[in-house]
Amino acid sequence: MKASARFRASTPENGLSILHYERATNPAVNIRPAPEKIPNIPSGTPFWEFNKFKMLPRHALPSQLNHPSFPGHYDREILMTTSQRKLDDGSIRMYLNNITFEEPMSPVLLDLYDGQRSRHPSYHTVDRIDGYDVTRRTIPVKLNEVIQIVIQNTATTTGRCDQHPFHLHGHSFFDIGGGNGLYSPIELSRQVENSSTPLLRDVISVYPERDDKNLKYSPGTPCGWRAFRFIADNPGVWIFHCHVTAHMMLGMQTVFEVGIENLNYNSVYLPTP
Ligand SMILES: [Cu+2]
């Protein structure tokens, strides 16, 4: 197996490993293979190969055994735009919909249990396209709502288009498509129609539109999008974040409050014997 960095300047080749099966012949695991035996990594376009994989039958994925099937329709679409800003003190923050995540003073879930926080979000006031409740500082979601998230990637302050592997806690989701530049609802509909079985995933990547480390954009230029659907069937407080740790720490995360009216408040704080 060979690995190399993509989408930014780096050493040309920075990972080579040999996977050796038990009882396989020629177990010369400490000798570097001849050059013609080392696989070539194709260069050029971003990789969408995950979408080309064949689906495994459900029983091959025990953890997903009871996951509901792909929802053909969604109740609400939430658009999330990534961005990056340089602050006056020279530090960098990263944003989702112009909000950079800040750790709350006390955990949201504990505040719900303690009664320090309303258990009844006013869903009717959260009709913004970003779904964000500025008072709660979360995105409240009704139990069993089908949410379609579109991540719109934009170029950084240095004019680069970063890759962001996004991860949602509490739910798997269906990868329904993506593309270059600015989000196209028509293109997404086309991809959903043409895909018989969208993949169930835990991480989804929004890729730079071109694998070209010299490409420069003006900051904020739309440079790729990706979309997924999830069924909000797991009541709780769930974080959604870029899985590049640096991006996450710089603020690229947000919180969903899912069906919190249905949280079981009685099952916690049991008296200890
Ligand atoms: Cu990121």
UniProtKB/TrEMBL annotation:
<keyword id="KW-0479">Metal-binding</keyword>
<keyword id="KW-0560">Oxidoreductase</keyword>
<protein>
    <recommendedName>
        <fullName>Plastocyanin-like domain-containing protein</fullName>
    </recommendedName>
</protein>
<dbReference type="Pfam" id="PF07731">
    <property type="entry name" value="Cu-oxidase_2"/>
</dbReference>
<dbReference type="InterPro" id="IPR002355">
    <property type="entry name" value="Cu_oxidase_Cu_BS"/>
</dbReference>
<comment type="similarity">
    <text>Belongs to the multicopper oxidase family.</text>
</comment>
<keyword id="KW-0186">Copper</keyword>
<dbReference type="InterPro" id="IPR045087">
    <property type="entry name" value="Cu-oxidase_fam"/>
</dbReference>
<dbReference type="InterPro" id="IPR011706">
    <property type="entry name" value="Cu-oxidase_C"/>
</dbReference>
<dbReference type="InterPro" id="IPR008972">
    <property type="entry name" value="Cupredoxin"/>
</dbReference>
<feature type="domain" description="Plastocyanin-like">
    <location>
        <begin position="105"/>
        <end position="259"/>
    </location>
</feature>
